[in-house]
Amino acid sequence: MMLLTALMVLPLGVAASIYLEEFAPKNRWTDLIEVNISNLAAVPSIVYGILGLAIFINFAKFPQSSPLVGALVLTLMTLPTIIIATRAAIRAVPPSIRDAALGVGASKMQTVFHHVLPLAAPGILTGTILGLASALGETAPLLLIGMVAFVANYPAGPLEGGMLDPASALPVQVYSWASRSDPAFIERSAGAIIVLLAFLLVMNIIAILLRRRFERRW
Amino acid sequence: MEDMRLMERTLATNQVKVAAKGVDVFYGATHAIKDVSVDILDNMVTAFIGPSGCGKSTFLRCLNRMNDTVSVARVTGDIRLDGEDIYDPRVDPVQLRARVGMVFQKPNPFPKSIYDNVAYGPKIHGLARSKAELDEIVEKEAKDRLKEPGTGLSGGQQQRLCIARAIATSPEVLLMDEPCSALDPIATAQVEELIDELRANFSVVIVTHSMQQAARVSQRTAFFHLGNLVEYGETGQIFTNPRDPRTESYISGRIG
Fold this sequence. Notes:
The complex is a heterodimer.
Chain A: H1 2-23, H2 28-41, H3 45-59, H4 67-91, H5 95-103, H6 108-136, H7 140-144, H8 170-178, H9 184-214
Chain B: H1 2-11, E1 16-27, E2 30-41, E3 45-49, H2 56-62, E4 73-81, E5 84-85, H3 93-99, E6 100-103, H4 114-124, H5 131-141, H6 155-167, E7 173-177, H7 185-198, E8 203-207, H8 211-217, E9 220-225, E10 228-234, H9 235-240, H10 245-251
Parallel strand pairs in B: 3-8, 3-9, 6-7, 7-8
Antiparallel strand pairs in B: 1-2, 1-4, 4-5, 9-10
Helix pairs in contact in B: 4-5, 4-6, 6-7
């Protein structure tokens, strides 16, 4: 589910940021969009859950508690964060590099894709991974789209249509296990929490390593 | 094709390369350049001098339409490169910038190897059909340390790398926006020497706020003041026998 989120949110977020930062004219429309994006980043996640419930399940009739809907909701939720991080990374590329590329006769597209984007890549990657990490621990929106249900069967693998089967997510699992009075579940929820934390730690380490790897000074 | 261009270029020696007539530039409400007309000759170094903010860089950036990238800037008037109107809507500014190269105030090599820096222009314009041809173009401009990053060079070397990068696309006109203002005297001397060599193949326009530099490298000088072109002529004449009192007071250090 998180992989699907990443696959959807990264191209969408980066494309939107490039457009807003490099190509969009500065007018009232783009100002409005900018304000909206910053506001969306601050909207409580449960609101995205309601939105997902209304649009993806009630309107588009996607199956309840499926990872597909979960991924869509988390995509919507992380998109503003990623757009903001990406735009900051793009803006941090010195204008002299753009001038240099344009000065040797590169088109706007070539300038952005050959020079600006590679230089902004470490910032974009870090922003994306941190955004995904926060989505990873998100419970509230998933509760609303029904990913709390007790899952009796193993969901099918993602390639065999498992994206539409009912499933649960780790943080939701922790939530439901922790509220059981049954002592057997105390250990289980502790275990789930450890797995979740380890996963987060790994993601953050990857973010740091990628940053180190791609970082360039000028 | 290449031969034709070369021949035309030789024939056009010391003829008008870029002709600007009645050029006005506005930055929003600011009238930055007021009715400037200049003929820039081929195979000569033309210097634009004047106090800061007088519009010399702005005018320079009109010549390869770099002002297009500034959304509030508006350019009117007529600028012709070899008789062709460069502000014609059919002219692609990207193609134009391949013909009119530019070197900036601050050395700005791409954070890549020296080879990649020089090869970038020829690569995007398809000037080389094979890797060998590309190598040949690069070797012409840069000799050694090709694998090292361009950003690891000293300031003067970086600026010369930027010049190499600009001429690797074999432009016809080379615009230089205060290329030595960030360099020490030795690096400046090296760049000036290079400019003098470049004159054989290009028409060079250099913006500078150092009058000594203008006197050293240029054959013709234009003096800008508050967005107006005050005086334009042979460098010797401008510096020894200026016609306009404003030029005189600038070169003698009373204004600017």
